[in-house]
Every structure is written in structure tokens, then in C-alpha cells.
Write a structure and sequence with these properties.
The complex is a heterodimer of chains A (399) and B (1058). Chain A has 399 residues and is α/β, with parallel strands linked by helices. Chain A contains 10 helices and 21 strands. In chain A, helix 8 crosses helix 9. The longest helix of chain A is centred in the C-terminal third of the chain and has 15 residues. The C terminus of chain A is likely disordered. In chain B, the strands form 7 sheets. In chain B, strands 14-13-10-11-12-15-16 form a 7-stranded antiparallel sheet, sandwiched between helices. In chain B, strands 31-30-27-28-29-32-33 form a 7-stranded antiparallel sheet, with helices on both faces. The radius of gyration of chain B is 28 Å and the shape is globular. Among the domains of chain B are: 108 residues, Rossmann fold (3-Layer(aba) Sandwich), CATH 3.40.50; 215 residues, D-amino Acid Aminotransferase, Chain A, domain 1 (2-Layer Sandwich), CATH 3.30.470; 103 residues, Rossmann fold (3-Layer(aba) Sandwich), CATH 3.40.50; 195 residues, 2-Layer Sandwich (D-amino Acid Aminotransferase, Chain A, domain 1); 66 residues, Dna Ligase, domain 1, CATH 3.30.1490. Helix content of chain B is 38%, strand content 19%. The chains are: A alpha/beta (399), B alpha/beta (1058). Chains A and B meet through strand 9, helix 3 and strand 17 of A and helix 9, helix 16 and helix 17 of B.
Amino acid sequence: MVVDLSHQAPHLRKKARIILDDGSQWEGRVFAAGGERFAEIIFNTAMVGYQELLTDPSYTGQAVVMTYPLIGNYGINPQDFESRKIFLEALIVREYVPFSSNWRSTKTLKAFLDENAILGIDQVDTRALTKHIRNKGSSKAVLTVFDNPVEEYVEKLRQTTVLERYNVAKFASCDSKYTWAKPPKTEFRVAVIDCGVKYSILNYLHQQHCESTVYPSQVHGEELLEQGFDGVFLANGPGDPQPLHNLTRVVRQLLGKIPLFGICLGHQVLAQALGLKTYKLKFGHHGINHPIRNLQSGKIEIASHNHNFAIDPHSLGEEVLVTHLNLNDHTIAGIRHKTLPAFSVQYHPEAAPGPQDSLYLFAQFCQEMREFRRHRTQPQVLLSPWINCALSPVQEYLA
Amino acid sequence: MKRPDLASILIIGSGPIIIGQGCEFDYSGTQACKALRKIGHKVILVNSNPATIMTDRDTAERIYIEPLTVASLEQIIARERPNAILGTIGGQTGLNLVIELHEQGILARYNVEMIGATAAAIKKAEDRLLFKNAMDSIGLNSARSAMAFTIDEACQAADSLGYPCVVRPAFTLGGTGGGIVTCQAELEIIVAEGLQSSLISEVLIEESIYGWKEFELEVMRDCNDNVVIICSIENFDPMGVHTGDSITVAPAQTLSDVEYQSMRNAAIAIIREIGVETGGANIQFALNPVDGRMIVVEMNPRVSRSSALASKATGFPIAKFAALLAVGFTLDEILNDITRVTPACFEPSIDYVVTKIPRFHFSKFPNTPAYLGTAMRSVGEVMAIGRTFKESLQKALRSLETKRHGLGFDKGEFTNLDSQELRELLRRPNPERIFAIKQAFVQGFTLDEIHQLTKIDPWFLYQISELVSCFANLTDTPELLWWAKRQGFSDHQLALKFGYKNELDFRQRRLDLGIKPSYKIVDTCAGEFDAYTPYFYSSYEYEDEVEVSARPKILIIGSGPNRIGQGIEFDYACVHAAYACREAGYEAIMVNSNPETVSTDFDTSDRLYFEPVTLEDILNIYEKEQALGVIIQLGGQTPLNLCRSLHACGVKILGTSPESIDIAEDREKFKSLMDKLGIALPPSGIAFTAEEGLAIAADLGLPVVVRPSYVLGGASMGICTSVEDLRRYLALARNEAAEEHPILIDKFLEKALEVDVDAVCDGVRCVIAGIMEHIEEAGVHSGDSACCLPPFSLAPGLIQKISAATTAIALALTIRGALNLQFALKDEQLYILEVNPRASRTIPFVSKATGVPWAKIATQIMLGATLEQLNPQVTQQSFYAIKEAVLPFKKFPGSDPILGPEMHSTGEVMGIDYDLGLAYLKAQYAAGTLLSDEGTLMVVCDESENLRIEELLYGFREIGMKLIKLSPSALNDRERFRTALGQIAQQEIKLLISLPFSTPQPEERTLRLAALARNIPLITTFRASQLALAALCSKRKNPVMTQSMGEFLSSSSARDSC
């Protein structure tokens, strides 16, 4: 139980505006930090997990609108961080709750935002803003406590760089390599290419007896191959995969020589390495309730999502198999190489926040490393080719 | 994929509305029936409750309104030979029946498959020990506990677990018989009750987790083992108060993702382990607030009260999908109705806060203290949606219709309590506790202190403290008024705060400032996708996203929370109104606050506003929608009470004019009208003060009937046989009645026969829908009296007279729509008791018995149709339909189970047969009164009754029953009284007829309570005894047969045509 004694009723707090590049503006009140931020604005529909969202490096450069109206309810605890700091630019909510009630809570959300100088705005009609973003697409926005005219901000926004075609991942990556806690019994040694890796991923690898070494995203392929790792993990991260030419080249170099597993941005980079193209979604997928069909088992996984880009299905070649499908909009949610040990998913099996229906993918990665070890001499017969299961269309009985 | 082998499916409804099993199962059942019919299944439905939409002609292929007993279900199965039976839709009643059918080998004999959940899964979920073992096997904690089959075993178990501990009977409804006990003496009492109410005489003694945080998850699973969580619910009232009696909030508020996901994982593991193959389940968890230790409390392997709430809270129709999953569909094959493009296999995300508050009616049971525990006592509930918890809490509180306009701040405060009294109110859970918390903050209690006393999570308490400080700091400025409205404060509260004349005065100020509510859509996906749901709620936000169509619109005002006297019957009528409006080409707009109902299914109307049924909220919607008019005569007294104010605000009232309503409700005006028409009224008077009351009574001569005008279900209504009685009642009635409404005093017509009439009128013609003869004599509230359609003892001339009087009154009042009249017949003289210018509680019963949708016809009249055009065909019935009331006395220990002018029943059943006796027998069976013609009958009555009952007793002897007769003097003999009590306790007595003594004696009451506790049929009126005898005689002559409603009705029209 932690409370913000300094918290004031909204009408006593500083006004803040959110101005989008189309000139639309939204009013709110500042509840943490202050000043002005330029960011890409997106919304997230998760009803829990704000602490994980805040510290997920994939949000670099973004201002996040939470669709659930009450945020701050259970405070901040020392255990649920996904990285070393807050990566997003601002948090926009309907009502900030300055009183946290949870046995693990040690500080309030406001205190945490203030420490990291992250702007917090509440009293915003977040539903209206969400629908605006949904209809118009994620866009550039300025969040400000200052009174400058809208036109001025719109002009400024026009001049700011967009996240597309820009390597944002390097900002989320670590500066130098480090090793994650050793598991009690190491079965595999895994290299993690860090574009903004979440701690949960490292923890789940750890749980699967993997000893992880985390490399900055600028790492060279040779370095990884020389170290004798059992597998390479391509981490999640922010932004557009297209500008990540070096990384794509590195992954292409690793293909077939070492098992690969990618998540989110890692998935997109693997796709690029396999010759596929990516495109930007209108407003991305940010939430923890999307249904994914595993096309091999036919089963549904409810999955955690946080991405703005997806694989272009028209670019699919002969050697790539679609393994997972998003049932909401039928975008590609998982792929694998038909013969080589390389697979990836667009969503987040490590959840945090979100359902843990897809944790089996970490075990699958280990299984592939195990197989690869056994068949190191004959990579071409490594895995039985995946049966291209027919994509059963969603039935529309009740239309 | 849909299974091809299930051509016909039998669905079991949940029977009468009782505490713990409300009209949510009509909502679920109706959804399930419709969904299965739509995809081509033949649906056979059994339910004993006529006041349900599910028993309407269009809901299923075959409808049986028959007792929910194994015997009648076996007959139906033998006649219909269904391929499958779906028992997970009809509450605990449906589930228990399906298990019994299975265990008696009936399902196997007729080759009927159980779909939804298997017998093994149901057993595993419902049997406490099996459930606990199952939890152990998947590594989940449950409370430490031990089973007991006897009181001794229970004591041993409690000693090892330590006090306080919890007693939970296995296989019951609404937690009957359970409770927290703090010492062995308490334990023995509660265990005795628990063993009695458990269908398998088994109780669980459990470590106390009183005060822990309480959560529920609604889970769905399909035959491909896909599992999704539809909704999480957090209880405001922590462990110790039955969930049905707790304020609950969706989604969970105080769990982080880590904790929520571990609960989600547990829920998924549980549904798999228990083996619920398809459909929904509800799982309850308790969390230790100190360290987060999670305990699985219980699981319902079926659609439940909570799943209905979760459906309304999220927009995700759980029952409908559960039915589809049961016949083989998978979640990914079903489309989300709301987004129309995304599949149903997802987990709804909501962008608002939902608060449910139970509605209690302890005032009806003055002998039961108004405290809450693990046995459910609430009779209804409201739900409200807001963008914040504070807003939804205040909206829910004003939805309750308990004369509160939010969280207090309305002159209803506990200001006269000292801090010790307040502490007591906080410590022991009770219906008023939420207001006590607010008052405690006002009086300077700290949050921590209140938390220590209530154990309520500090998060909720903090929210309340914010409301208190917000209200204290308000000033009448645009900025702060906007802020106040955003916190859910009502116009009424703010008018009081700033000294406005009334709420309308403040409303004007608010509108002048441009402060208006905006409406938001409930869309299951937090705005991520386009939504097509016409399901809205209000909030004070910047964007109103609800567009008004160009179509002509009709606003239908619902009946709010269920309570004794205003239940599902009125919702039934409102649903028909929506159907009628839609058929006539109008846009039907529904406003209601009751999550249990069919009316708040967004499929029922064109648009649903889930809002409090108050003047403020209705005016807001009316103005936004620019409706042509408002229908107020179908939702019971709630909308009728708003009629005057709405009319004064310029709202167009459809149907009977407010002036006519006023004549019917104003005793003075009504009396002069009756005089003009030459229809007799019992001699009466009107009193504005207690003194006037006493004077009038002296004039009329005792006994008299006292009642406040404009009340419902006979609240504060009484029969006074002495002056002391009268004084007491006058004092009470003054408190209950609205200030501007006086008290009515009528001469009581002793031993008169009562008749209820339902009719429709278009102002020019009047059509009698049904004339119902009451079984019980006048003096028993019509809602508690059984009644028969058609009348069985009235001379044709008298029926003619009643019809003529009805028509005369209807036309004189220019009724446009429905009306209900009550007549009394004494010494060949017909008296009019009252006229209700609205649809009555009996409308659904009459509709079922006649096969004519009267509520719909009433609506069509309100929309301008004439009876000449509609021409409803009332055929001569070839059968008797008997409505019997179902009473909740068992849930209110200490309440004397006798019938009187104050209504106590929570629900009703219908029994139909060509033979009057059998119709009555079926009605009794359906109501759970298993009349037996063997064994001993005990009759307790005054000596003065001897003459009247002689023939009756002869009849009982004739059919071979042994007889014990006890007079008041016999009961004064300690030995004889003790013997009698023993005979009841030992269940030697099979039927107790106890006609209340003219001078009440505690012993007769004790015998009645003992019979009630032992489930021995109890009859307290002479006429009911006569019918019981007739029923038992018929039973000896003819077997009890079942027939579908279609068969009954076609036999009527066949007879009519020949």
C-alpha cells in the first residue's frame, strides 16, 4: 500500500495537450513529470501490465495511450521490470490512481515516472483518442504543457523524423555484451542479439536451462559463430525492421549454421533475411488478447502483441512456411524455414504482460538446438519438412 | 463444426425465481435456445416458470411448462426422445436434475447424451472432496478442510482447524445453510442446517479465509481445448460475504499482470482438470492480501449468475456461445457479434469499470437481522458502467432505487450514529455498509481504521475517500461541476449541495453550462475495432460516440433491480414491448439497470442504454435520442412512479395518459369515479396523519387494511385487528411512503374471495385477457396467492359482472394499453379493491395460459393500433392453469411463514392440467412442495374453524391419511406440544395445515418453522387446504401427465371451434 500524498485533484493540476500531426488535439492534466515530448502515438488495450509496458524497450520513441481507464492501481514493484529503465516517451491515461494496493508494491506509478522524467497525462478521453488512432493510423504527436498554437506544433511534427526507415533498435540495445544469470544446469549456450530484449525472455531461456549472452544489435556474425553457441535468439525491439540492413545480413549469414529463434522485431529481421518484405500496419497490434492460430496443431493461443510492422504475405517464397496466423486480421504471426532450424513469431510468447499460452516456443527452440547438435554434420536433413497444413478459413456461420 | 448427430436437444430451465437463482437464467436460457434453433436444432424446453421469455412460443420448438422433477422430465424425454440434454444453462436446478436423470439411468435408457459437461465433470466440480483432490493434483491450493456427515464429525474437524471456521454444505443453491462459526455452539446449529439443505447430507468444514481478497474468472472452453477468459471480477466485499451479496467490480482492479496471469493459468488448468468439455465455467479465488497466497474457492461448471454479469459487463454473450460450443463449434468458428470480423476466441478488453450491487429486501423479514454472510440473501442486483470506479459506483448506487442518489450526500446519511455504532456497522457486513464507510470518512476515520474494521481492500476505500473529499471541496463553478459529474455525482446530490430547489433546477444550471453526458459503446475490444453493438452507457467525457438515427424511436423504461414485488414479470413485459416496437417499424430503445434480464441483452432492442432508471438519466437519454415517446406502463411501479415527473418535463407518455394514471392511483378521485360507475369499494378513508388514521379506523370498524399509496408489493401494508396494531402500522407506513402520498385505510373484507383481472384497452374497446380466481382468501397479497385461470368456482353471472365492471372502468379511465384490477367477492357482493393502470405481475402467466402475447398487444395499442385491428383471440380454455407463488422464508430464519397483505414471494410457477386438482398438484410440485397422500396430516387451528374444516378432514381421512388435530389449548399443553414438534422434526408428519389462530400463539409459529426447516409441506389457508385435498384425490384417480404448451393450447382452440 503506497500513496502519493502530493497528488492533487485534476482541476488543480497543470493542463496538458496532445496534438497529433493532423492537427487534432486532446486535453488532459499532467500527473507525472512535465514539459514537452515528440513521439509516435499508439494505444494498448491491456488491462493489466503497465509496469512491464513502461520498461519494454520496444516502446522506444512512442507515447502510449492505455485504453483501460484506471492506471496505477497496484503501483510499481521491484520484480516486474522488463529492462533497466523506461523506454517510452509518455503515458496517457483516463485516470491516474495515486493509491496502490498490492502486497508487492513499493512505489507509486507517478514516482516511477518522475524518476525517469517520463511525462504522464491523465483525464484524457482515451477512448475517443484510441478510436482516432484506429481510424487514422498511428501518427506523430506532440505532448506538451505549453500553450503554443497548434499550427506551430503541426509544422514541427511535419519536420520530425518518423520511426519508419530509421534504426531505432540501436537505442534500445545494450552498449556492450553481458551474460544473464547462469542456470543451475546449463544445457545450451545461447547468444541473444539485443534490439531491446525483455528480461522475461532471458528468464524463460534461463528456465529452459539456457545460458544467455546478450550482444548489442551491431554484433558481427563471425563473432557469434566462433563462440560455439548452440543457438541465436533474435530479440524484440522497437521500430521498423527495414533499416536494419546489417542485422539482416548477419542473420542471413547465420541461417542454417545455427538454430535461430526470433520474436517480434527479431521475427521481422529473420523474415528479411529469408527474402521476405515487411510493411507498416495501420495502427499496429498492442494488447494482450489477440487470438493466434497455431496452424500445425490447429489450436488457439491468446497472445501478447506489441508491433507496428508485419510480414507482407505476397512476398512469401517457397522455402518459408507460415506457422501461426493472427485470427483478428489474418496477418502472419509466425514463420519458419521449411528445412533449416530457424523460426520466429510476431507476438510475445514471453508475455509480460499477457497470457502465457505460447511459452512452448521456448521449449521448441531448445528442441531444435538439441536436434541440431545431434545432426550437426548433415544440416540439410535436420528436420522433417513441415507439412504445409491447409489454412482453414474462419467459418462464418453466424454472420 | 456443428455435430450432425444432434437433431433435437432438451434444455432445462431453472424454474421459479428464488434467492440464489434469479432471472439471469432466463437470459442465458433464452440466448441458448435461440442460438441452437437458429442453426437448425429442434429445441425442447422445460421450465416451470411462466414469467420467462424462454417459455415464449418462439423460443423453442416444444415448450413444456411443467414441474422440474425427475418424473416429469422422464415423461418428456419418453415423449420427445431428444438426442441430447443441455443442463448447464438452467442454473443449479438444471445441473442437479441432469445429474439425477443420469444417476437414475434415465438418460441411458432413452439414449440421451449429456452435452456441455459430463456427469463426471459435474461431480468433480460440485463434490467438495473430489474438487479439493483435483486441485491438489494440479498443484493448486485450496483452503484446508475436512468433510463431515454428522455433527460430531464436524466438531472434530473444527477442533483441528481452529475457530473461526466455515461450514459449507455440498450441492445446494446460493450457499443455503452455510456460515462462518466462531465456537462449537454456533457450529452445531449451522452444521445441522447444512446437513439438512445439502442434497447429499454432506458439509465441509474449512479454515477461515475471512477478509481475503476475492476474485472470479469467467472461463470458456471448446471441444478443441481452446480456453479463454471472458472477464475477471473483483469483490469489493472480501471473503466472508456470499458473492451474490457482494458488491463486485469488473475487471479486477488490484492485480498486477504477474498475479492476474497466475490466476488465469490456474483457471485454465482447473477447467481442464475438472473436464468441462465445452461451455462456460466460473471459478472463484481468494488471495491473502498479505502475501498473495492464492486459494481456489470453488467452480461452477455451468453458466452462472456471474457469467450473466460478465456477459453484460463485456458484451460477450457467454450463454449463447456456450450453447454453440456444446453442439460442436469451436471458439474460432464463431464470430464476435460486436466486431463482426474478429472471432469469438479472444479475451474481451474493456475500457470502463463495471460495478454490480446487490439489492436486498430485509424489511420484508423483520425477524431476520440484516447482516450478510456466506448464505445469499439478496433478491436482485443492479449494474452500472462508468469510465472510473467512482462513477460506476455512484451510478450503481442510484440504480438501486433505495431512495439513495449515489454514495450518500443525499440527506439519507448516518449522521445520528456515534463512532461506536458506526464501527459496528463497518465491522459486520450489511447492506448499508457502503454508506457507513462514506460516513466514517466524513467523521474523520482513517483509511487504515476502516480497512481494519471492514477488511475491504484499501484501494476501494481510497476511491470512496476521494469521493468524500471531492464533494467537500466542490463549488458551483463550471470547472468543478464538470469534475463532479465525472465522479458520478447525480443532479439530486449536487442540487442539495448547492441549495437548488430540486434536481430539475440544478439540471437547468448544468445544461446552461453545457455539461451533458456523452455516451460510449460497449464493444468487447476497448475501441480496437469498429463495433456494431447498440449497447451504450453514459459518462462525462469529451466525445459522444453514439449517433442518433433518423428513425422514429420509442423509449422503453425497464423495471430496475428485481425485488420482492417487482421481478422478472415486468422485464418480460418490457421485452415484449421492444419486440412490438421493432415489428411496428420503430426503433426500440431500452433503458434498464438490471444485468440479470433479457431486456438488457443488446439483441432484444435496437438500442440498449445500460443506465440507472432515474429521472436524470432518462431525461438525458430522451433528449439525446429525441424519442417520440416513452413507455412506462410495462416496467412495474418504477417507471410508473417516474410518470408524473417525466410528464412535467414535457416527455410524451405513450398509452394511458398521466391524468388517467393519477385518477387510478389517487384514492379520492378513484372513489368518486367508482361511485359514478356504481361499482362498490370497501368502505375506506384517507389519512395524512396517524390521528386521522385512528379516527377513520374507528369509523370503519376493525379489522382494516392499511397501506401507503404508490407502493409496490404491499410494502408496509398490513391488516390491523386491534388499535395497537394500527398505531404500529401507521408509524411504519409513514416512513415508507413518499412524503406527498397519503395512507389508505380500507375496511378489511374477511374471508372474501379475491379475483385478479388483466385486460387491455384502446380507449374505445376493452378486451379481458384473463380472470383469475385466487386460491387464498382476500387479505393475502395477490403476489403471494395462488390463482387459477379460468375461475373454477365463480358463477357465470358473476364472471359477466366482473367483465362488465372491468370494461366500464377501463373505458372510464380511457386506458390505452394494459390494466389490472383486483376484485373481492363477499356475501355475493362484488367490490373493486384496486386498479393498476399498467401491466401486472400476472401478464406473463395469462399470456402463457391463453397463448396470446398481451404485453405486446398493449404495446401495439400504445403505438396507435386499435383492438379492432389487433383482434386478439381469446379462446375458451379447456384446461386449468394455476399460478403458485414461491416463498423465500427458509432463507430468512425466524420469519413466520404465513401469508398476509405484505408480499414475500420471489417467484412463481405454473401448473397446467385438464383436471383442477392435478393442475394444483403440478403447481405445488413445481414450487417444490411435494404433497403426499400417505402418512400423517397435522392440522393446527382454532376451535372456531372446526365446522369449516370438518368436511376437509373427512376427505383427507378418505384418502387414507392419518390425522392429528391440535387446537390452541392443545398447544398450551407442554407435553402435547413437544410431541407434535417431535413428530415434525422426525418427519412423521407429511403435511402441516396451520390456520393462524385469531390470537397468535408462539407454539403454532414454532411448528410452522419446524415444518419449514424439515421441508414438510405447509399450508396456512383454508382454501389452499381444500385444493390440496382435491389435488391428492385427483392424483389417486389419474396419473400426472405432461403435455407441451402447444398441445394444451391447441386442445383449447379445438374445443372452441366445436
